[in-house]
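$ ./design --mode recover --in tokens.txt
reading tokens...
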């Protein structure tokens, strides 16, 4: 009986070859942008206690109700693979008392995989990577807000090589949100029978989520619904106006989208999403916002936060082939060794050269010279060392195609030039 091949899980990606090089280039560019904003990189566990996401991302969010990858119970704890970073970053800031540092705001950046049990399609995966930052402070002020927003925009633009579109909205305090939810419920109740099953559930759990619905007929119905910005108190209205004024002064283009509510429950204040103007059907390439009480809700200090995450795989789709060529991280070989002698000389020279910091690879035995040289070209090798069966040593410069013969004791010094 044929042995059945095991495939990767649906909605995951194997990175290798050219795509791996592009992925490495994306990571480098985005983290370099984050460095420009004085951020410090953090590396956190990929799984956390379930409760962390229930209390932050929210019981009524799709992410928590149906998309978490919950792990089999271990001991008395329930764990889940992280569906996003913001909650984990806040947890780490509290647990490690990073908030007691004298330098505010705390500016942390991250890059890594997150897991959501979604229906896979283009740009929608079950394991994908996010790059992002979280800025935390006792009070997130205007300059911190603008810096977080600017970093999201500038890093996406820097990577893609063209402008991206920003949609913004303001969600206000939890109190104003509650008043808004009551009005939304009143609006949708008479219409809910002809809406999707998810919306029926959302009407009870959190009517705000109905505005997130991707079903076109439901989106049409939602168009006439009350706007969240009509429920803002004076303070919130002033904050939103100040942000818009500052963005105008910075000559940043944005669109106010009053239906933008984001799919996570912790937001209060400014929220935004970024879109690639050249890829209309891709969905948001990034999103973020301010969260005033997330830290307190998981036992931390009364700190506010603001941050965003970009979806790396969506950025990958948005990248033009030309731009991919420009950004891909190639690690060309310094030396490629073809050893016809087969007595371990190739490994001896490779070991010495690598100790000097050179990238070296070796042709497998039995490869004819022509084929091995073609391989050296494909690997971008600068030089080729040929150890011949008659104990001669030849060095070929792959750019000029010049070849010289050297004595054994001269091999390393000749290749070092
Ligand atoms: P989010 O909007 O859920 O926000 O995700 C951020 C980005 O991740 C999205 O804009 C999208 O590009 C990408 N993304 C989301 N789901 C998928 C998927 N299934 N497959 C591929 N890419 C996806 C957050 O996660 C928040 N933590 C952002 C944030 C940080 N807010 C404050 N700080």
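writing sequence...
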């Amino acid at each position: 009986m044929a042995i059945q091949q095991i495939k990767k899980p649906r909605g995951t990606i194997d990175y290798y070859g050219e795509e791996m090089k592009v992925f490495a280039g994306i990571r480098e560019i985005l983290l370099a942008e984050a460095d420009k904003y004085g951020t410090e990189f953090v590396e956190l566990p990929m799984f956390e206690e379930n409760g962390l996401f229930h209390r932050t991302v929210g019981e009524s969010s799709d992410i928590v109700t149906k998309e978490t990858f919950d792990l089999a119970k271990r001991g008395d704890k329930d764990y889940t693979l992280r569906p996003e970073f913001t909650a984990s970053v806040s947890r780490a800031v509290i647990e490690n008392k990073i908030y007691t540092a004298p330098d505010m705001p705390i500016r942390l950046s991250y890059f890594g995989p997150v897991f959501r049990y979604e229906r896979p399609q283009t740009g929608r995966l079950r394991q994908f990577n996010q790059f992002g930052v979280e800025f935390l402070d006792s009070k997130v002020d205007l300059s911190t807000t603008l810096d977080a927003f600017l970093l999201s925009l500038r890093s996406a633009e820097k990577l893609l090589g063209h402008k991206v579109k920003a949609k913004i909205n303001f969600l206000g305090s939890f109190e104003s949100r509650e008043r808004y939810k009551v009005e939304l419920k009143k609006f949708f109740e008479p219409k809910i029978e002809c809406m999707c099953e998810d919306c029926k559930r959302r009407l009870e759990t959190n009517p705000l989520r109905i505005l997130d619905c991707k079903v076109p007929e439901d989106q049409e119905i939602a168009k006439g619904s009350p706007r969240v910005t009509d429920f803002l108190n004076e303070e919130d209205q002033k904050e939103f106006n100040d942000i818009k004024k500052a963005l105008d002064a910075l000559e940043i283009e944005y669109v106010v989208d009053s239906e933008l509510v984001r799919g996570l429950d912790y937001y209060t204040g400014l929220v935004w999403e970024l879109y690639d103007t050249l890829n209309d059907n891709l969905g948001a390439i990034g999103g973020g916002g301010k969260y005033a009480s997330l830290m307190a809700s998981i036992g931390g200090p009364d700190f506010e936060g603001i941050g965003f995450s970009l979806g790396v795989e969506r950025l990958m789709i948005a990248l033009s082939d030309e731009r991919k060529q420009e950004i891909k991280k190639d690690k060309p070989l310094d030396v490629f060794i073809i050893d016809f002698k087969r007595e371990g000389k190739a490994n001896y020279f490779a070991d010495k050269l690598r100790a000097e910091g050179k990238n070296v690879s070796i042709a497998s035995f039995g490869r004819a010279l022509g084929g091995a040289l073609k391989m050296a070209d494909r690997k971008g090798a600068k030089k080729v060392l040929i150890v011949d069966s008659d104990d001669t040593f030849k060095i070929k410069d792959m750019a000029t195609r010049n070849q010289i013969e050297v004595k054994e004791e001269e091999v390393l010094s000749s290749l070092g030039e």
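exit 0
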